[in-house]
Protein backbone atom coordinates (compact mmCIF):
# COMPACT_ATOMS: atom_id res chain seq x y z
CA UNK A 1 0.00 0.00 0.00
CA UNK A 2 1.48 3.33 -1.07
CA UNK A 3 1.46 5.90 1.77
CA UNK A 4 -0.59 8.98 0.84
CA UNK A 5 0.87 12.46 0.80
CA UNK A 6 -0.23 14.31 3.95
CA UNK A 7 -1.83 17.01 1.84
CA UNK A 8 -4.07 14.50 0.10
CA UNK A 9 -5.75 13.41 3.32
CA UNK A 10 -8.89 15.47 3.96
CA UNK A 11 -9.24 16.91 7.50
CA UNK A 12 -12.34 14.77 7.89
CA UNK A 13 -10.23 11.60 7.65
CA UNK A 14 -7.97 12.81 10.43
CA UNK A 15 -11.00 13.73 12.56
CA UNK A 16 -12.41 10.22 12.19
CA UNK A 17 -9.05 8.67 13.01
CA UNK A 18 -8.56 10.82 16.15
CA UNK A 19 -12.03 9.95 17.39
CA UNK A 20 -11.61 6.17 17.10
CA UNK A 21 -7.92 5.42 17.68
CA UNK A 22 -6.60 3.81 20.85
CA UNK A 23 -4.94 5.99 23.46
CA UNK A 24 -2.20 3.46 24.14
CA UNK A 25 -0.97 3.44 20.53
CA UNK A 26 -1.89 4.78 17.10
CA UNK A 27 -4.01 1.85 15.96
CA UNK A 28 -7.77 1.34 15.60
CA UNK A 29 -9.55 -1.69 17.01
CA UNK A 30 -11.27 -3.87 14.38
CA UNK A 31 -14.50 -3.87 16.42
CA UNK A 32 -14.55 -0.07 16.36
CA UNK A 33 -13.98 -0.05 12.61
CA UNK A 34 -16.82 -2.54 12.04
CA UNK A 35 -19.20 -0.30 13.98
CA UNK A 36 -18.07 2.66 11.91
CA UNK A 37 -18.59 0.69 8.70
CA UNK A 38 -22.13 -0.28 9.73
CA UNK A 39 -23.03 3.42 10.01
CA UNK A 40 -22.53 3.89 6.24
CA UNK A 41 -25.73 1.90 5.57
CA UNK A 42 -24.05 0.32 2.53
CA UNK A 43 -25.36 -3.14 1.57
CA UNK A 44 -23.92 -5.82 3.84
CA UNK A 45 -22.28 -7.55 0.85
CA UNK A 46 -20.42 -4.33 -0.04
CA UNK A 47 -19.40 -3.83 3.58
CA UNK A 48 -17.98 -7.38 3.51
CA UNK A 49 -15.97 -6.61 0.37
CA UNK A 50 -14.49 -3.50 1.96
CA UNK A 51 -13.52 -5.48 5.07
CA UNK A 52 -11.78 -8.10 2.93
CA UNK A 53 -9.51 -5.46 1.38
CA UNK A 54 -8.45 -3.97 4.73
CA UNK A 55 -5.28 -5.20 6.43
CA UNK A 56 -5.23 -5.63 10.18
CA UNK A 57 -2.89 -7.27 12.69
CA UNK A 58 -3.75 -8.66 16.13
CA UNK A 59 -7.24 -7.18 15.94
CA UNK A 60 -6.09 -3.63 15.02
CA UNK A 61 -5.98 -1.42 11.93
CA UNK A 62 -3.17 1.02 11.26
CA UNK A 63 -3.91 4.65 10.44
CA UNK A 64 -3.25 3.96 6.75
CA UNK A 65 -5.60 0.95 6.78
CA UNK A 66 -8.37 3.14 8.20
CA UNK A 67 -7.74 5.77 5.50
CA UNK A 68 -7.90 3.04 2.85
CA UNK A 69 -11.22 1.86 4.29
CA UNK A 70 -12.66 5.40 4.18
CA UNK A 71 -11.58 5.71 0.54
CA UNK A 72 -13.25 2.43 -0.39
CA UNK A 73 -16.40 3.49 1.47
CA UNK A 74 -16.52 6.74 -0.51
CA UNK A 75 -15.98 4.92 -3.82
CA UNK A 76 -18.63 2.32 -2.98
CA UNK A 77 -21.06 5.13 -2.29
CA UNK A 78 -20.36 6.36 -5.84
CA UNK A 79 -21.48 2.99 -7.16
CA UNK A 80 -17.99 1.59 -7.84
CA UNK A 81 -16.82 -1.89 -6.90
CA UNK A 82 -14.39 -1.52 -3.95
CA UNK A 83 -10.90 -2.84 -4.78
CA UNK A 84 -7.25 -2.08 -3.90
CA UNK A 85 -6.66 -0.83 -7.46
CA UNK A 86 -9.31 1.84 -7.04
CA UNK A 87 -7.57 2.97 -3.86
CA UNK A 88 -4.23 3.33 -5.68
CA UNK A 89 -5.90 5.46 -8.38
CA UNK A 90 -7.09 7.87 -5.65
CA UNK A 91 -3.77 8.10 -3.84
CA UNK A 92 -3.25 11.79 -4.72
CA UNK A 93 -6.67 12.90 -3.49
CA UNK A 94 -8.91 10.98 -1.11
CA UNK A 95 -12.68 11.28 -1.72
CA UNK A 96 -14.94 12.02 1.24
CA UNK A 97 -17.44 9.38 2.37
CA UNK A 98 -20.68 11.17 1.62
CA UNK A 99 -23.29 9.44 3.78
CA UNK A 100 -20.88 8.92 6.66
CA UNK A 101 -20.10 12.62 6.73
CA UNK A 102 -23.80 13.49 6.54
CA UNK A 103 -24.46 11.13 9.41
CA UNK A 104 -21.73 12.78 11.47
CA UNK A 105 -23.20 16.21 10.72
CA UNK A 106 -26.69 15.03 11.69
CA UNK A 107 -25.30 13.49 14.85
CA UNK A 108 -23.53 16.73 15.67
CA UNK A 109 -26.72 18.70 15.14
CA UNK A 110 -28.80 16.28 17.19
CA UNK A 111 -26.07 16.03 19.84
CA UNK A 112 -26.70 12.54 21.21
CA UNK A 113 -25.20 13.60 24.53
CA UNK A 114 -28.15 15.93 25.14
CA UNK A 115 -31.28 14.48 26.77
CA UNK A 116 -34.17 16.21 25.00
CA UNK A 117 -36.85 15.44 27.57
CA UNK A 118 -39.20 17.29 29.90
CA UNK A 119 -40.72 15.98 33.11
CA UNK A 120 -44.17 15.87 31.50
CA UNK A 121 -42.84 13.76 28.62
CA UNK A 122 -41.17 11.35 31.03
CA UNK A 123 -44.29 10.98 33.18
CA UNK A 124 -46.42 10.47 30.05
CA UNK A 125 -44.33 7.50 28.86
CA UNK A 126 -46.19 5.09 31.10
CA UNK A 127 -47.91 4.68 34.45
CA UNK A 128 -47.70 1.23 36.00
CA UNK A 129 -49.98 0.11 38.81
CA UNK A 130 -48.66 -2.50 41.27
CA UNK A 131 -51.35 -4.09 43.42
CA UNK A 132 -51.50 -7.09 45.73
CA UNK A 133 -53.66 -9.84 44.27
CA UNK A 134 -56.78 -9.79 46.52
CA UNK A 135 -56.76 -13.49 47.39
CA UNK A 136 -53.06 -13.27 48.25
CA UNK A 137 -53.36 -10.61 50.96
CA UNK A 138 -53.07 -13.10 53.83
CA UNK A 139 -50.08 -12.74 56.11
CA UNK A 140 -49.25 -16.42 56.43
CA UNK A 141 -48.58 -17.22 52.78
CA UNK A 142 -45.13 -18.31 51.64
CA UNK A 143 -45.09 -15.66 48.94
CA UNK A 144 -46.98 -12.59 47.77
CA UNK A 145 -48.07 -11.98 44.19
CA UNK A 146 -48.61 -8.65 42.47
CA UNK A 147 -50.77 -7.55 39.59
CA UNK A 148 -48.78 -5.28 37.27
CA UNK A 149 -50.85 -3.09 34.95
CA UNK A 150 -49.15 -0.94 32.30
CA UNK A 151 -51.13 2.00 30.97
CA UNK A 152 -48.96 2.03 27.83
CA UNK A 153 -49.41 -1.64 26.91
CA UNK A 154 -52.94 -1.86 28.37
CA UNK A 155 -52.30 -5.26 29.87
CA UNK A 156 -52.11 -6.83 33.33
CA UNK A 157 -49.58 -9.50 34.27
CA UNK A 158 -48.78 -11.28 37.54
CA UNK A 159 -45.36 -11.17 39.15
CA UNK A 160 -43.72 -12.45 42.32
CA UNK A 161 -40.90 -10.71 44.12
CA UNK A 162 -38.43 -13.18 42.60
CA UNK A 163 -39.50 -11.95 39.13
CA UNK A 164 -38.68 -8.38 40.16
CA UNK A 165 -35.37 -9.63 41.54
CA UNK A 166 -34.33 -11.27 38.24
CA UNK A 167 -35.57 -8.23 36.29
CA UNK A 168 -33.43 -5.95 38.46
CA UNK A 169 -30.38 -8.21 38.08
CA UNK A 170 -30.73 -8.23 34.28
CA UNK A 171 -31.22 -4.45 34.15
CA UNK A 172 -27.90 -4.01 35.96
CA UNK A 173 -26.21 -6.39 33.54
CA UNK A 174 -27.65 -4.75 30.44
CA UNK A 175 -27.48 -1.13 31.64
CA UNK A 176 -24.52 -1.01 34.02
CA UNK A 177 -23.86 2.62 33.01
CA UNK A 178 -27.41 3.85 33.74
CA UNK A 179 -29.49 4.66 36.82
CA UNK A 180 -31.09 1.37 37.83
CA UNK A 181 -33.29 1.93 40.91
CA UNK A 182 -32.78 -0.39 43.88
CA UNK A 183 -35.33 -2.98 44.97
CA UNK A 184 -36.86 -2.95 48.46
CA UNK A 185 -35.77 -5.84 50.74
CA UNK A 186 -37.61 -9.12 50.30
CA UNK A 187 -38.10 -9.72 54.02
CA UNK A 188 -38.27 -7.73 57.22
CA UNK A 189 -34.85 -7.27 58.77
CA UNK A 190 -34.86 -8.96 62.16
CA UNK A 191 -34.24 -6.61 65.05
CA UNK A 192 -34.48 -3.50 62.85
CA UNK A 193 -38.12 -3.20 61.83
CA UNK A 194 -39.60 -4.42 65.09
CA UNK A 195 -42.02 -1.47 65.27
CA UNK A 196 -43.50 -2.32 61.83
CA UNK A 197 -46.07 -5.07 61.43
CA UNK A 198 -45.80 -7.61 58.62
CA UNK A 199 -48.88 -6.10 56.98
CA UNK A 200 -47.26 -2.66 57.01
CA UNK A 201 -44.03 -4.11 55.63
CA UNK A 202 -45.86 -5.80 52.73
CA UNK A 203 -47.67 -2.55 51.91
CA UNK A 204 -44.41 -0.56 52.06
CA UNK A 205 -42.74 -3.09 49.76
CA UNK A 206 -45.65 -2.87 47.30
CA UNK A 207 -45.26 0.90 47.17
CA UNK A 208 -41.48 0.62 46.67
CA UNK A 209 -41.91 -1.92 43.85
CA UNK A 210 -44.38 0.46 42.22
CA UNK A 211 -41.87 3.31 42.35
CA UNK A 212 -39.15 1.03 40.96
CA UNK A 213 -41.13 -0.16 37.96
CA UNK A 214 -42.45 3.33 37.15
CA UNK A 215 -38.95 4.86 37.17
CA UNK A 216 -37.81 2.07 34.83
CA UNK A 217 -40.84 2.33 32.53
CA UNK A 218 -40.36 6.11 32.20
CA UNK A 219 -36.61 6.04 31.57
CA UNK A 220 -35.95 7.18 27.97
CA UNK A 221 -33.52 4.28 27.34
CA UNK A 222 -35.04 1.49 29.43
CA UNK A 223 -38.56 2.10 28.13
CA UNK A 224 -37.47 1.30 24.56
CA UNK A 225 -35.81 -1.99 25.50
CA UNK A 226 -37.17 -5.47 24.88
CA UNK A 227 -36.29 -6.55 28.43
CA UNK A 228 -38.68 -3.99 29.95
CA UNK A 229 -41.42 -4.83 27.47
CA UNK A 230 -41.09 -8.52 28.34
CA UNK A 231 -41.42 -7.83 32.07
CA UNK A 232 -44.51 -5.64 31.59
CA UNK A 233 -46.33 -7.76 29.00
CA UNK A 234 -45.27 -11.45 29.02
CA UNK A 235 -48.07 -13.60 30.45
CA UNK A 236 -46.35 -16.99 30.66
CA UNK A 237 -45.19 -18.67 33.84
CA UNK A 238 -41.56 -18.76 32.68
CA UNK A 239 -41.06 -14.99 32.54
CA UNK A 240 -37.64 -15.25 34.19
CA UNK A 241 -36.37 -17.60 31.45
CA UNK A 242 -37.87 -15.32 28.80
CA UNK A 243 -36.09 -12.26 30.25
CA UNK A 244 -32.74 -14.07 30.55
CA UNK A 245 -32.98 -15.25 26.94
CA UNK A 246 -33.74 -11.73 25.73
CA UNK A 247 -30.78 -10.35 27.67
CA UNK A 248 -28.39 -13.00 26.28
CA UNK A 249 -29.35 -12.16 22.70
CA UNK A 250 -28.80 -8.43 23.18
CA UNK A 251 -25.74 -8.27 25.42
CA UNK A 252 -25.05 -5.11 27.41
CA UNK A 253 -25.75 -1.58 26.17
CA UNK A 254 -22.15 -1.04 25.08
CA UNK A 255 -22.64 -3.74 22.44
CA UNK A 256 -25.89 -2.30 21.06
CA UNK A 257 -25.67 1.50 21.44
CA UNK A 258 -24.58 3.07 18.14
CA UNK A 259 -22.63 5.78 19.97
CA UNK A 260 -20.77 3.38 22.29
CA UNK A 261 -17.42 3.36 20.49
CA UNK A 262 -17.72 7.02 19.45
CA UNK A 263 -18.62 8.37 22.89
CA UNK A 264 -15.26 10.12 23.30
CA UNK A 265 -15.83 12.55 20.44
CA UNK A 266 -19.07 13.84 22.02
CA UNK A 267 -17.77 14.35 25.55
CA UNK A 268 -16.81 17.87 26.64
CA UNK A 269 -13.14 18.41 27.44
CA UNK A 270 -13.93 19.18 31.09
CA UNK A 271 -16.21 16.17 31.60
CA UNK A 272 -14.47 15.16 34.85
CA UNK A 273 -14.88 18.63 36.36
CA UNK A 274 -18.52 18.75 35.27
CA UNK A 275 -19.11 15.32 36.77
CA UNK A 276 -17.58 16.30 40.13
CA UNK A 277 -19.55 19.54 40.27
CA UNK A 278 -22.87 17.93 39.33
CA UNK A 279 -22.34 15.11 41.77
CA UNK A 280 -21.87 17.56 44.66
CA UNK A 281 -24.98 19.55 43.70
CA UNK A 282 -27.09 16.39 43.45
CA UNK A 283 -25.72 15.10 46.77
CA UNK A 284 -26.93 18.32 48.46
CA UNK A 285 -30.30 18.03 46.76
CA UNK A 286 -30.62 14.45 48.00
CA UNK A 287 -29.84 15.49 51.59
CA UNK A 288 -32.50 18.22 51.48
CA UNK A 289 -35.13 15.92 49.99
CA UNK A 290 -34.41 13.34 52.69
CA UNK A 291 -35.25 15.96 55.32
CA UNK A 292 -38.38 17.04 53.43
CA UNK A 293 -39.54 13.43 53.21
CA UNK A 294 -38.93 12.84 56.92
CA UNK A 295 -40.99 15.93 57.83
CA UNK A 296 -43.78 14.97 55.45
CA UNK A 297 -43.89 11.47 56.95
CA UNK A 298 -44.21 12.96 60.44
CA UNK A 299 -47.06 15.24 59.32
CA UNK A 300 -48.90 12.32 57.71
CA UNK A 301 -48.38 10.24 60.84
CA UNK A 302 -49.65 13.10 63.03
CA UNK A 303 -52.75 13.41 60.85
CA UNK A 304 -53.49 9.71 61.35
CA UNK A 305 -52.77 9.97 65.07
CA UNK A 306 -55.06 13.02 65.29
CA UNK A 307 -57.79 11.00 63.56
CA UNK A 308 -57.38 8.22 66.11
CA UNK A 309 -57.49 10.72 69.01
CA UNK A 310 -60.67 12.33 67.65
CA UNK A 311 -62.33 8.95 67.31
CA UNK A 312 -61.35 7.95 70.85
CA UNK A 313 -62.45 11.38 72.16
CA UNK A 314 -65.91 10.82 70.64
CA UNK A 315 -66.13 7.31 72.06
CA UNK A 316 -65.28 8.55 75.55
CA UNK A 317 -68.04 11.16 75.25
CA UNK A 318 -70.42 8.40 74.17
CA UNK A 319 -69.34 6.22 77.10
CA UNK A 320 -69.89 9.14 79.45
CA UNK A 321 -73.35 9.80 78.01
CA UNK A 322 -74.32 6.13 78.22
CA UNK A 323 -73.70 5.97 81.95
CA UNK A 324 -77.06 5.05 83.48
CA UNK A 325 -75.98 5.49 87.09
CA UNK A 326 -78.60 7.39 89.14
CA UNK A 327 -77.75 10.95 90.16
CA UNK A 328 -77.23 11.28 93.96
CA UNK A 329 -80.14 12.81 95.86
CA UNK A 330 -77.98 15.60 97.30
CA UNK A 331 -77.25 16.88 93.72
CA UNK A 332 -80.48 16.09 91.94
CA UNK A 333 -82.20 19.37 92.74
CA UNK A 334 -79.50 21.63 91.30
CA UNK A 335 -77.72 19.38 88.77
CA UNK A 336 -78.36 19.51 85.03
CA UNK A 337 -76.09 16.48 84.58
CA UNK A 338 -78.97 14.29 83.53
CA UNK A 339 -79.70 16.50 80.50
CA UNK A 340 -76.04 16.98 79.68
CA UNK A 341 -75.39 13.25 79.90
CA UNK A 342 -78.14 12.48 77.39
CA UNK A 343 -76.74 15.11 75.01
CA UNK A 344 -73.16 13.78 75.09
CA UNK A 345 -74.16 10.37 73.77
CA UNK A 346 -75.04 11.70 70.31
CA UNK A 347 -71.78 13.59 69.75
CA UNK A 348 -69.77 10.46 68.90
CA UNK A 349 -71.21 10.56 65.35
CA UNK A 350 -69.67 13.96 64.62
CA UNK A 351 -66.34 13.00 66.15
CA UNK A 352 -66.31 9.76 64.14
CA UNK A 353 -66.84 11.90 61.02
CA UNK A 354 -63.99 14.20 62.10
CA UNK A 355 -61.79 11.14 62.64
CA UNK A 356 -62.66 9.87 59.16
CA UNK A 357 -61.75 13.24 57.61
CA UNK A 358 -58.49 13.26 59.57
CA UNK A 359 -57.63 9.74 58.37
CA UNK A 360 -58.34 10.80 54.78
CA UNK A 361 -56.02 13.75 55.30
CA UNK A 362 -53.25 11.42 56.49
CA UNK A 363 -53.73 9.12 53.48
CA UNK A 364 -53.61 12.06 51.06
CA UNK A 365 -50.38 13.29 52.62
CA UNK A 366 -48.95 9.79 52.41
CA UNK A 367 -50.09 9.03 48.84
CA UNK A 368 -49.68 12.44 47.20
CA UNK A 369 -46.75 13.97 49.08
CA UNK A 370 -44.63 11.32 50.81
CA UNK A 371 -44.88 8.91 47.88
CA UNK A 372 -43.73 11.53 45.35
CA UNK A 373 -40.84 12.46 47.61
CA UNK A 374 -39.87 8.80 47.89
CA UNK A 375 -40.04 8.41 44.09
CA UNK A 376 -37.55 11.22 43.56
CA UNK A 377 -35.35 9.99 46.42
CA UNK A 378 -35.24 6.53 44.81
CA UNK A 379 -34.03 8.17 41.60
CA UNK A 380 -31.41 10.25 43.46
CA UNK A 381 -30.14 7.14 45.25
CA UNK A 382 -29.85 5.30 41.92
CA UNK A 383 -27.69 8.18 40.63
CA UNK A 384 -25.46 7.88 43.68
CA UNK A 385 -25.16 4.13 43.12
CA UNK A 386 -24.29 4.76 39.46
CA UNK A 387 -21.47 7.15 40.40
CA UNK A 388 -20.01 4.51 42.71
CA UNK A 389 -20.27 1.84 39.99
CA UNK A 390 -18.41 4.13 37.59
CA UNK A 391 -15.59 4.80 40.04
CA UNK A 392 -15.27 1.32 41.54
CA UNK A 393 -16.06 -0.56 38.35
CA UNK A 394 -14.98 0.65 34.91
CA UNK A 395 -12.52 3.32 36.09
CA UNK A 396 -10.89 1.04 38.64
CA UNK A 397 -10.58 -1.87 36.19
CA UNK A 398 -9.11 0.45 33.57
CA UNK A 399 -6.43 1.66 35.97
CA UNK A 400 -5.59 -1.92 36.99
CA UNK A 401 -5.25 -2.93 33.33
CA UNK A 402 -2.90 -0.01 32.64
CA UNK A 403 -0.73 -0.99 35.61
CA UNK A 404 -0.59 -4.58 34.39
CA UNK A 405 0.32 -3.38 30.89
CA UNK A 406 3.12 -1.23 32.26
CA UNK A 407 4.49 -4.18 34.23
CA UNK A 408 4.41 -6.42 31.16
CA UNK A 409 6.24 -3.77 29.12
CA UNK A 410 9.00 -3.66 31.74
CA UNK A 411 9.24 -7.44 31.63
CA UNK A 412 9.54 -7.26 27.83
CA UNK A 413 12.34 -4.70 28.03
CA UNK A 414 14.13 -6.89 30.56
CA UNK A 415 13.72 -9.91 28.28
CA UNK A 416 15.17 -7.92 25.38
CA UNK A 417 18.25 -6.88 27.37
CA UNK A 418 18.85 -10.26 29.02
CA UNK A 419 18.94 -13.39 26.80
CA UNK A 420 15.73 -15.40 27.19
CA UNK A 421 14.24 -18.42 25.49
CA UNK A 422 12.53 -17.43 22.24
CA UNK A 423 9.30 -19.17 23.25
CA UNK A 424 8.94 -17.19 26.49
CA UNK A 425 9.60 -13.89 24.66
CA UNK A 426 6.94 -14.71 22.07
CA UNK A 427 4.50 -15.64 24.81
CA UNK A 428 5.17 -12.32 26.52
CA UNK A 429 4.61 -10.47 23.24
CA UNK A 430 1.32 -12.30 22.76
CA UNK A 431 0.21 -11.41 26.29
CA UNK A 432 1.11 -7.77 25.69
CA UNK A 433 -1.03 -7.72 22.53
CA UNK A 434 -3.93 -9.27 24.44
CA UNK A 435 -3.53 -6.71 27.20
CA UNK A 436 -3.50 -3.88 24.65
CA UNK A 437 -6.77 -5.18 23.24
CA UNK A 438 -8.25 -5.34 26.74
CA UNK A 439 -7.10 -1.78 27.50
CA UNK A 440 -8.61 -0.54 24.24
CA UNK A 441 -11.96 -2.07 25.14
CA UNK A 442 -11.79 -0.67 28.67
CA UNK A 443 -10.99 2.79 27.34
CA UNK A 444 -14.01 2.65 25.07
CA UNK A 445 -16.19 1.44 27.94
CA UNK A 446 -14.84 4.16 30.23
CA UNK A 447 -15.75 6.87 27.72
CA UNK A 448 -19.16 5.30 27.18
CA UNK A 449 -19.68 5.16 30.94
CA UNK A 450 -18.95 8.90 31.13
CA UNK A 451 -21.24 9.47 28.15
CA UNK A 452 -24.11 7.70 29.94
CA UNK A 453 -23.29 9.40 33.24
CA UNK A 454 -23.55 12.77 31.50
CA UNK A 455 -27.01 11.83 30.19
CA UNK A 456 -28.19 10.45 33.53
CA UNK A 457 -27.08 13.66 35.25
CA UNK A 458 -29.27 15.62 32.84
CA UNK A 459 -32.13 13.25 33.63
CA UNK A 460 -31.88 14.08 37.33
CA UNK A 461 -32.25 17.77 36.56
CA UNK A 462 -35.12 16.99 34.19
CA UNK A 463 -36.91 15.40 37.15
CA UNK A 464 -36.30 18.36 39.49
CA UNK A 465 -39.53 20.21 38.54
CA UNK A 466 -41.29 17.39 40.40
CA UNK A 467 -40.69 19.70 43.36
CA UNK A 468 -43.58 21.88 42.17
CA UNK A 469 -45.80 18.76 41.83
CA UNK A 470 -44.94 17.81 45.41
CA UNK A 471 -45.60 21.30 46.79
CA UNK A 472 -48.86 21.50 44.85
CA UNK A 473 -49.98 18.14 46.26
CA UNK A 474 -49.00 19.24 49.77
CA UNK A 475 -50.92 22.54 49.60
CA UNK A 476 -53.97 20.89 48.02
CA UNK A 477 -54.06 18.18 50.68
CA UNK A 478 -53.92 20.79 53.45
CA UNK A 479 -56.59 22.99 51.85
CA UNK A 480 -58.92 20.04 51.26
CA UNK A 481 -58.31 18.58 54.71
CA UNK A 482 -58.89 21.86 56.58
CA UNK A 483 -61.96 22.65 54.46
CA UNK A 484 -63.58 19.26 55.08
CA UNK A 485 -62.79 19.19 58.81
CA UNK A 486 -63.76 22.86 59.17
CA UNK A 487 -67.15 22.09 57.66
CA UNK A 488 -67.75 19.35 60.27
CA UNK A 489 -66.63 21.62 63.13
CA UNK A 490 -68.94 24.39 61.86
CA UNK A 491 -71.85 21.95 61.73
CA UNK A 492 -71.08 20.94 65.28
CA UNK A 493 -71.40 24.47 66.68
CA UNK A 494 -75.21 24.91 66.35
CA UNK A 495 -75.72 21.33 67.46
CA UNK A 496 -73.82 22.02 70.66
CA UNK A 497 -75.95 25.09 71.33
CA UNK A 498 -79.12 23.09 70.81
CA UNK A 499 -78.01 20.04 72.76
CA UNK A 500 -76.94 21.94 75.85
CA UNK A 501 -80.09 24.00 76.05
CA UNK A 502 -78.61 27.44 76.39
CA UNK A 503 -82.16 28.90 76.34
CA UNK A 504 -82.82 27.27 79.70
CA UNK A 505 -80.50 29.51 81.63
CA UNK A 506 -77.33 27.51 80.93
CA UNK A 507 -74.09 29.14 79.91
CA UNK A 508 -73.23 28.57 76.25
CA UNK A 509 -70.51 25.96 75.82
CA UNK A 510 -69.02 28.26 73.18
CA UNK A 511 -68.52 31.06 75.71
CA UNK A 512 -65.01 31.20 77.23
CA UNK A 513 -64.95 30.25 80.91
UniProtKB/TrEMBL annotation:
It comes from the Eukaryota. Keywords: Membrane, Protein transport, Transport. Signal peptide: none annotated. Gene3D superfamilies: Arfaptin homology (AH) domain/BAR domain, EF-hand, Phox-like domain. This is PX domain-containing protein. Belongs to the sorting nexin family. The keyword Nuclease does not apply. InterPro entries: AH/BAR_dom_sf, PX_dom, PX_dom_sf, SNX8/Mvp1, SNX8/Mvp1_PX, Snx8_BAR_dom. PANTHER family: SORTING NEXIN-8 (PTHR46571). CDD domains: BAR_SNX8, PX_SNX8_Mvp1p_like. The lineage of its organism: Eukaryota, Metazoa, Chordata, Craniata, Vertebrata. It holds the Pfam family PX. It is found in: Membrane. Residues 124-238 form the PX domain.
Amino acid sequence: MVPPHSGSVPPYYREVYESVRSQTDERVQVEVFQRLLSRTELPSAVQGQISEHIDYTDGFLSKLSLYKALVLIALAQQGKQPSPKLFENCIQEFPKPRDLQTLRMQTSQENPLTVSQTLDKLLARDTVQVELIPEKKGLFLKHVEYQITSQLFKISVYRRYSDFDVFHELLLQRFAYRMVPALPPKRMLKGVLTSISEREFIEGRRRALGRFVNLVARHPVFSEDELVKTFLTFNGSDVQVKMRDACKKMGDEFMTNRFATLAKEYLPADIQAQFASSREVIRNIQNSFHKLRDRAERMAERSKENATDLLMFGRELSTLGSDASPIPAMASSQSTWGLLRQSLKGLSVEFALLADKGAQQGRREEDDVVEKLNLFLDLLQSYRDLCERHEKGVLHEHQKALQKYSMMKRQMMSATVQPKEQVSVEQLESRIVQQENAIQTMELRNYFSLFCLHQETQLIFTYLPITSHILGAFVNSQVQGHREMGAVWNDLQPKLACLFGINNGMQSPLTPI
